[in-house]
Amino acid sequence: MITGKYPNLRLRRNRKESWTRRLVQENTLSPNDFILPIFLIDGSNKKESISTMPGVFRYTINRVSQIVDKAIKKGIPMVALFPKTKNTLKNDLGTESLNENNLVCRAILEIKKKYKNQIGIMCDVALDPYTSHGHDGLIKSNKIINDETIEVLINQSLLQAEMGCDVLAPSDMMDGRIGKIRKALDNSNFKNTQILSYAAKYASSFYGPFRDAVGSKSSLKGDKKTYQMDFRNSDEAMREVALDIKEGADMIMVKPGMPYLDIIKSIKEKFKIPVLAYQVSGEYSLLETAINKKLIQKNAVYESLVSFKRSGANAIVSYYADRIDKILDHLKDELQNKIWLGEFIVYMFNFKNIEVNFFDETQSKMTLSARMLLLKVFTLQKDY
Fold this sequence. Notes:
Elements: H1 18-23, E1 34-41, E2 47-49, E3 57-60, H2 64-74, E4 78-83, H3 103-115, E5 120-125, E6 138-140, E7 143-145, H4 146-163, E8 167-170, H5 177-187, E9 194-201, H6 208-214, H7 235-247, E10 251-255, H8 261-271, E11 275-278, H9 281-292, H10 299-311, E12 315-317, H11 324-350, H12 356-364, H13 368-383
Parallel strand pairs: 1-3, 1-4, 1-12, 4-5, 5-8, 8-9, 9-10, 10-11, 11-12
Antiparallel strand pairs: 2-3, 6-7
């Protein structure tokens, strides 16, 4: 609550300069805030582009280390694995999800063998990458059957935990699956395996590019509205979250991200539990397309990511995670440019005859765009 009134209270005073804005900023970003999704494909020595997700790729198992190396060096705490399963391995029951030689299991083993516990591994628990119909559960009489699906999800979870997965992330939205998975893990001596529940996963129009990435878009029959949440509801999300926490969830995921900042905030305030946001493929592709067409500035990415932190998210699953250092460095460059340009202008107007050495030294510490502006100012000063 604001105490005081204008003119004694002027909120703009804290916004007057860059240094004071930085001093009182309430939210910041660092690599620790991110989870990097990795898409997997069969084969060898492949890095395959995804047409609907510019700048995002699928990797074969023997090239996964390239992206994991980068993640570790950038300080990202966890990667998330998503497979593009061959159509020949898919069936109505999603049995490939229980194959210890499937893409996810092989990737877990490869990462753990090379990196041990240097980075966490998150695995999706759901059947849609493995079913011929593209749904997250089993189908009977044209309906997604809940309890029978859970039995498969339990076995999928146990297999991934056995391979070395650190964080199981059930994204299927079946009722009661968290409690049953937690019990099965505890009974199998996986008491420390964490569960990140997609408790508030909405039936959204923002998932299209992801479904392209994992190859389920063309096979999906119908929609997922009978198990994923109605985007018009928020109270229902609180009930879903409360149920999953009671059943043993360690963390909660909200998906999609930006259209559901209100849900993130409500969960954080009500339950005081770690909340993660998924900046989904549709959000990513919209931003990338708008930036590439110069409809919006690149800083829109940073703004969108900060919005998750502002709403209360502890971490963000984002396809920008592997570029977060460049995003943050770009902001530092902008700030440094302003500092040096300011010093230069002050110097320029105090001394008519600027020394070349100062100009060269100043210019060397600035980015190209700032140098061009500096050169213009320098030319004007000579005329002055």
